Amino acid sequence: MKxxxxxxxxxxxxxxxxxxxxxxxxxxxxIECIMVDDGSKDESIFxxxxxxxxxxxxxxxxxxxxxxxKGVASARNTCINNATGNYVxxxxxxxxxxxxxxxxxxxSNINSKADLVLGEFNVxxxxxxxxxxxxxxxxxxxxxxxxxxxxxxxxxxxxCNKLVKRKFLLDNNISFYANIVHxxxxxxxxxxxxxxxxxxxSEITYIYHLRSNSITQNMSERNFKSxxxxxxxxVEYDQEFKLHKAHIQLFNYYANLRIYxxxxxxxxxxxxxxxxxxxxxxxxxxxHKEYNKISNYSMESMLKLIPYKTSVSLxxxxxxxxxxxxxxx
Length: 329
Prior knowledge:
alpha/beta
């Protein structure tokens, strides 16, 4: 079984060597490495070329260059479109893999039938608690069970550290929406909608190196517009496939997204007109009567929706109180 390790990068000269070598030096024999340079302006490409030309896996490594910076979502799509492996595996340019990562994931994939194989991970430069703990301990079978496990936060919505069957992605037309950030949330949501078998690997198969200046660590207006787009697409899928009819937990999942959005927004700006505008946009997305029916939510989720049902001044006060209480814990 062939695995394509996919590495999109942009101005990553400070750490691209670590990521690339951890991919090329994998113990698993049947891999290819597809790298996409998303319009870098630094020395990334020269550092990569110096490694590849002397490496035993140079013939199974490709570097594709975008003419301009199109964003990580487009770079990831280019990776998938050029992969030839049975499975694909994303590695961010500032992270790295244990040398037996792919081998352990493949070993866990009984009879190579899984749509998705999830591995464990370590975190450096940050707090592991910020990542969703994997609560799958062997496997999850059946689409209903998989979707429920996802919206119940039993596995994470990041792109990396997931061995994904390439045919599954192509057959279900699952790709990344361009020109947004947090695109991995929607990508994982779509995978959960379609997958029929997930396998869990208890071995450490990924090392996250968190940086304070990453896109998701430093929020901007683009982050919030992207999250609004993502919630809108989720509701569209929900309405088309009647997801909430079979998955009541989906309402609580939405509530978690909405309170996350508002906390980040109020940490980012004190401008009440901006807060009101974005609250109005989200309330419009969730304007269907089923999303406003109290009995669909847990008590905890109902509390999370309070700031969407009151004045902006009270919403800001409510969120700041929550943030203050969290700091004291």
